[in-house]
């Protein structure tokens, strides 16, 4: 009697639970299981998406045991005489019999758990399961597809946080719908278009049949994944983000390739922080060691140094006490040092510098020594730079190693060795040529003059004439004067002026040399030509101190500075755009075009007695008459002192004469442009009315300067806008066409870049030819290798 009462009571409880499942919301509220609504994942809200650890939601679920059981069941074997058909449901152990009749729920077969739960868990009431379509789970289990089975479990856990995977998916009876099985097979094979047609055909034939919602959901997700991957391959990054936003179920650890592509899309659409968030999510939640390491490697090619340090703090310790990313830390150090070479303000942690130094010493790679050499040279550590460049040349004498060593030698005032080091590589590239010529200019300018062998002088002179390099030609003139060879000096000064007629130091050297040669007519011709432009030439009086036996005064220290690629020196709008550009490639990385390392510039101060008239002295321009201030402003512009010229022109703007004010406004605009202040130049141009020709000339110069500034700052779309505006006023110069081509290259518009470079190359531009090579390096790196 007692057993009958117990059975009846159990039946009542089961019936109550079955009835309660019909109102899941009420049941969840009753037992405190949370909201009945399914949480909707948000795009890239990484902290809200659960990890893909399948065992997190079910202490009884053991993925390895399930995989083993799948493999055992699906492996071919000889069927026993009593073995049922493969499609038949496996027989289940009978439930314990009781005296009372069994309910429908009690008569259902119960799958034995793969891993037995502790007694306390077995006795506890199981939480209410959400209504989840598990047909895909059963299908992948029956086919032995362990990878898709695990991915399906991860997907369902992300969509239904309260869902617990079945302990044994194989124990769930399979349906006998052969057509549906065929549809799942099409899905498994990735034949999505055929699957869509099969569903439509069956619905047309059987109006009452509806495909499983999970099949349609998974088909939508699979097609979205295919579209996302295709958009990523085509560099359509905005589309990648849009698809990911519409399909949040793709953003899980089981789809780590999708997460990588979304992170790249964010970074390429100038949302680097969102891209960093995606990588952070992977490192915080995903556990696959190979995928975690690949994540760091991919991130290092797209993120800057500082964001990468934040990602590396998520590194997990290994069981042997080492660090998770030790295998790739050497390459990370190389990548960070290369970034430090491009940005002189970036301070790389001492650990990375020390690691690369150790690598350079132990592995002996010239490339590592070069990275260290350029890093130290950029930071004016000339002694350390020289050490590493010499080490690189000892391993492999290359143009880059020789160029770096030459720059370090010039910095420590050893131009003779610098010239010797670079002579072999002088024609390797434009950078190498510029460095060699800079070394020759500094060598010829040494005080006291260097005792150079005849063959060295001959080879320097040959290169200078071939390249028409004015600074060294001018220094040859001063060098010849120091040897009392005044006829030779005059010819060198004349040569320099022929190459650059506005080179005032060469003109000054020529005028004093002609004076000493008693060429009075030649002196007067030069004075007339430079009247109003150089007071020391027009006011030349006493040259007794420059007699043939006199020792010339020492050359004042020139300004020697290595221009950095991240912050190029601003140039007057009349100067051509430098052509040095290079492409940095790393396997699998996004390509970025940056300015190359410009060669050393040599600024020389002309020899001769100082003059007290003209604009050689510093005075307050406000104390001058407007007309005198205007003349002083142009004089200061001639000797390249634009900031002082700005003040002189400002004083000239106070003139009551309209012509003086117009000239002053025009001159001040040019001075601002030469100083790299295009915004101020535009304001200055409005201070006095300008004729149409001058207004157009200033506008063209201002737009060109703004285009250069925008390009140097990496704002390539803005650069194109300024170039388009300038092109409406004046035909585009070849150097600006090359600049436009590099803008297109940086914006990944390779077809437009090729078209521009080809057009410019047809004019004989070497810069454009280099641009075409850069495009080929980006678009066909394997071919160029």
Automatic annotation (TrEMBL):
Protein known as: Cellulose synthase
PANTHER family: AT HOOK TRANSCRIPTION FACTOR FAMILY-RELATED, LP07818P1
Residue spans of biased composition, Low complexity class: 85-109
Domain of life: Bacteria
Region entry Disordered, spans: 74-110, 561-581
InterPro entries: TPR-like_helical_dom_sf
């Amino acid at each position: 009697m007692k057993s009958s009462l117990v059975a009846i009571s159990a039946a009542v409880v089961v019936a109550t639970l079955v009835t309660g499942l019909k109102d899941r919301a009420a049941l969840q509220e009753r037992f405190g299981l949370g909201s009945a609504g399914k949480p909707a994942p948000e795009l890239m809200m990484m902290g809200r998406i659960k990890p893909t650890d399948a065992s997190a939601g079910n202490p009884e679920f053991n993925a390895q045991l399930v995989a083993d059981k799948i493999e055992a069941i699906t492996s071919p074997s000889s069927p026993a005489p009593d073995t049922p058909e493969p499609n038949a449901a496996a027989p289940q152990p009978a439930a314990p019999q009781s005296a009372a009749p069994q309910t429908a729920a009690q008569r259902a077969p119960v799958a034995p758990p793969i891993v037995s739960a502790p007694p306390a868990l077995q006795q506890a009431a199981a939480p209410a399961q959400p209504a989840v379509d598990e047909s895909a789970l059963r299908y992948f289990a029956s086919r032995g597809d362990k990878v898709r089975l695990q991915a399906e479990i991860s997907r369902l856990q992300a969509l239904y946080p309260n869902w617990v995977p079945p302990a044994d998916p194989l124990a769930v009876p399979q349906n006998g719908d052969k057509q549906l099985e065929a549809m799942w097979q099409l899905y498994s094979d990735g034949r999505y278009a055929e699957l869509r047609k099969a569903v439509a055909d069956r619905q047309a034939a059987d109006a009452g049949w509806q495909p499983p919602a999970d099949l349609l959901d998974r088909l939508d997700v699979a097609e979205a994944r295919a579209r996302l991957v295709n958009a990523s391959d085509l560099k359509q990054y905005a589309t990648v983000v849009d698809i990911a936003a519409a399909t949040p179920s793709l953003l899980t650890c089981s789809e780590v390739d999708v997460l990588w592509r979304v992170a790249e899309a964010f970074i390429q659409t100038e949302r680097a922080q969102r891209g960093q968030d995606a990588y952070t999510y992977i490192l915080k939640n995903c556990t696959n060691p190979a995928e975690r390491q690949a994540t760091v490697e991919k991130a290092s090619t797209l993120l800057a140094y500082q964001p990468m340090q934040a990602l590396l703090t998520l590194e997990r310790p290994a069981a042997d006490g080492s660090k998770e990313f030790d295998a790739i830390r050497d390459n990370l150090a190389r990548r960070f040092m290369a970034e430090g070479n491009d940005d002189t303000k970036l301070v790389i942690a001492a650990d990375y510098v020390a690691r690369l130094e150790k690598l350079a010493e132990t592995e002996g790679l010239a490339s590592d020594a070069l990275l260290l050499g350029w890093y130290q040279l950029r930071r004016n550590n000339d002694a350390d730079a020289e050490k590493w460049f010499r080490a690189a040349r000892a391993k492999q004498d290359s143009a880059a190693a020789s160029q770096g060593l030459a720059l370090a030698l010039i910095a420590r005032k050893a131009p003779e060795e610098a010239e010797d080091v670079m002579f072999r590589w002088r024609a390797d590239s434009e950078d190498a040529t510029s460095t060699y010529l800079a070394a020759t200019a500094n060598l010829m300018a040494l005080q006291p003059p260097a005792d150079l062998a005849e063959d060295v002088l001959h080879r320097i002179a040959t290169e200078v004439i071939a390249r028409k390099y004015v600074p060294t030609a001018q220094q040859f003139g001063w060098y010849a004067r120091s040897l009392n060879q005044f006829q030779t000096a005059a010819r060198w000064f004349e040569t320099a002026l022929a190459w650059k007629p506005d080179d005032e130091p060469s003109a000054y050297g020529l005028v004093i040399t002609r004076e000493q040669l008693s060429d009075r007519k030649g002196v007067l011709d030069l004075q007339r030509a430079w009247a109003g432009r150089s007071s020391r030439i027009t006011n030349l009086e006493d040259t007794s101190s420059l007699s043939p036996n006199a020792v010339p005064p020492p050359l004042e220290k020139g300004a020697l500075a290595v221009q950095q690629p991240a912050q190029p020196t601003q140039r007057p709008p009349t100067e051509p755009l430098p052509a040095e550009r290079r492409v940095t490639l790393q396997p699998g990385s996004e390509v970025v075009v940056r300015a190359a390392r410009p060669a050393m510039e040599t600024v020389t101060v002309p020899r001769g007695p100082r003059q007290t008239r003209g604009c050689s002295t510093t005075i307050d321009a406000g104390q001058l008459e407007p007309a005198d201030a205007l003349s002083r402003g142009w004089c200061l512009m001639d000797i390249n002192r634009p900031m002082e010229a700005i003040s002189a022109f400002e004083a000239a703007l106070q003139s009551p004469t309209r012509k003086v004010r117009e000239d002053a406004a025009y001159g001040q605009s040019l001075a601002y442009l030469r100083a790299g202040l295009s915004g101020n130049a535009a304001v200055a141009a409005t201070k006095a009315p300008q004729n149409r020709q001058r207004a157009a000339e200033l506008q063209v110069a201002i737009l060109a300067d703004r285009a250069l500034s925008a390009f140097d700052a990496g704002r390539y779309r803005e650069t194109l806008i300024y170039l388009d505006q300038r092109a409406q006023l004046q035909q585009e110069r070849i150097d600006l066409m090359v600049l436009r081509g590099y803008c297109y290259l940086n914006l990944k518009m390779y077809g437009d870049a090729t078209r521009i470079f080809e057009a410019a190359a047809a004019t004989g531009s070497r810069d454009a030819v280099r641009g075409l090579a850069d495009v080929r390096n980006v678009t066909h790196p394997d071919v160029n290798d």
